[in-house]
C-alpha cells in the first residue's frame, strides 16, 4: 500500500490479442466475469499534444478488490499503448488508485 495514495485499485495490461488474454485470465487465473467493449472509438483523444483517432478494445473484471483492465489498441493511431507495444512490451502498463475527493 502506498503511503500517499492508498491501495492499488487497478492493474492495466496492454495485450496483443484481447480474446487470448481473456482466455488466459479466465481459464488459468480464474478471474471473471469480464465486461468486454470492442473497437471503442474515442470522441476526443490527444497524445503528446496532438489529436489522435485512437481505437481500442477494453475488458474489465475484478479479482477481489483489484480491478484488472486489458487494453488492445485496434488501429495504428499514436498513443501510449502503441508506444508500449512498439517497444516490444506486452503486459502490465499502468496501475491506478481511486481518489476519495
Describe this structure in words.
This protein is globular. It has helices at residues 18-27, 80-86, and strands at residues 10-14, 35-41, 46-47, 50-51, 55-63, 66-73, 91-96. The strands form two sheets. Strands 2-5-6-1-7 form a five-stranded mixed sheet. A two-stranded antiparallel ribbon has the order 3-4. The protein is built from two helices and seven strands. With 101 residues, it is α+β, with helices and mostly antiparallel strands.
Task: List descriptors.
101 residues; alpha+beta; 5-stranded mixed beta sheet; globular
Order of helices and strands: EHEEEEEHE
Strand residues, percent: 35-45%
What characterizes the major β-sheet?
Answer: 5 strands, mixed
For the biggest β-sheet, the strand order reads 2-5-6-1-7
- Return the structural class: alpha+beta
Number of strands: 7
Give unreliable regions as ranges.
none
- Cα separation of the termini: 19 Å
Radius of gyration: 14 Å
Give the % helix.
Answer: 10-25%
The tally of helices reads 2
Assembly category: single chain
Average pLDDT for all residues = 94
Shape: globular
SSE diagram, text form:
Layout: E1 10-14, H1 18-27, E2 35-41, E3 46-47, E4 50-51, E5 55-63, E6 66-73, H2 80-86, E7 91-96
Parallel strand pairs: 1-6
Antiparallel strand pairs: 1-7, 2-5, 3-4, 5-6
In short:
About 15% of the residues lie in helices and about 40% in strands. With about 100 residues, it is α+β, with helices and mostly antiparallel strands.
